[in-house]
Specification:
Blueprint (H helix, E strand, L loop, with lengths): L1 H45 L4 H24 L1 H7 L4 H8 L1 H17 L3 H26 L2 H20 L11 H37 L6
Length: 217
């Protein structure tokens, strides 16, 4: 919520649309990585070696996300025009696909180990660092690129925090049941976070519009 307020006040009502397009680009690309990873995880688990699961997951994420990120960067001029954004914002947002790989797998490992303390610490540190990066990078410049870069940097920090858990897979229940519960919980958390974040953006944007006589500056 605080991040949404800072962003809206930093880039103004018109800049919010550009930031939203960058977020949408990343969020639409993520499911492709997840869908491509699931069959490989299932096969490695059925082979009788649970330790292969997360190595396979990481490899598949890399195999899908890296080409996707490169493709988005290469097509950034076209996508920028379609999304009414800027080339630099599209290119920077593409790196989110790379930074999120260790995060998604690392948090899944922590969830399978029921280590919710470490999981919550990583999430809190990531959110706080995002707010700090916004204040340090974006507020002084008022740049949309700085806003997107702050997101990338905070995700990269979360990736570093998750790296140590990528080699410690422990599955204590059937894979299908695990992914159903983990997936449902993760979707619920991400959805609620997005709702609260964009509520801050919407309220601040409306306030800015009202303060300028109802016309975006």
């Amino acid at each position: 919520f605080l991040g949404g307020i800072v962003i809206a006040r930093t880039v103004g009502p018109e800049g919010v649309g550009i930031v939203a397009s960058a977020w949408a680009l990343v969020e639409l690309a993520k499911p492709w990585g997840t869908l491509s990873v699931m069959p490989a995880i299932r096969r490695s688990f059925q082979a009788g070696d649970p330790k292969m699961v997360w190595g396979t997951s990481l490899a598949m994420h890399l195999a899908v996300m890296v080409p996707a990120a490169i493709g988005i960067i290469a097509l950034s001029p076209v996508l920028a025009d379609v999304l009414d954004s800027t080339v630099s914002v599209v290119a920077i947002s593409a790196t989110m696909l790379l930074a999120v790989i260790p995060v998604s797998i690392g948090l899944a490992v922590l969830d399978s180990r029921k280590d919710f303390r470490a999981r919550n610490i990583i999430v809190i540190v990531t959110n706080v660092s995002y707010l700090v990066f916004l204040i340090v990078l974006a507020v002084p410049t008022g740049s949309v690129e700085a806003v997107v870069a702050a997101n990338v940097l905070s995700t990269a920090l979360a990736s570093v925090l998750c790296l140590r858990y990528l080699t410690r897979p422990v599955l204590d229940r059937p894979l299908a049941r695990y992914f159903v519960s983990f997936g449902a919980r993760t979707v619920a958390i991400l959805f609620s976070n997005q709702v609260v974040f964009w509520l801050g953006v919407a309220l601040t944007t409306a306030s800015l519009g009202a303060s300028s006589g109802g016309i975006y500056r």
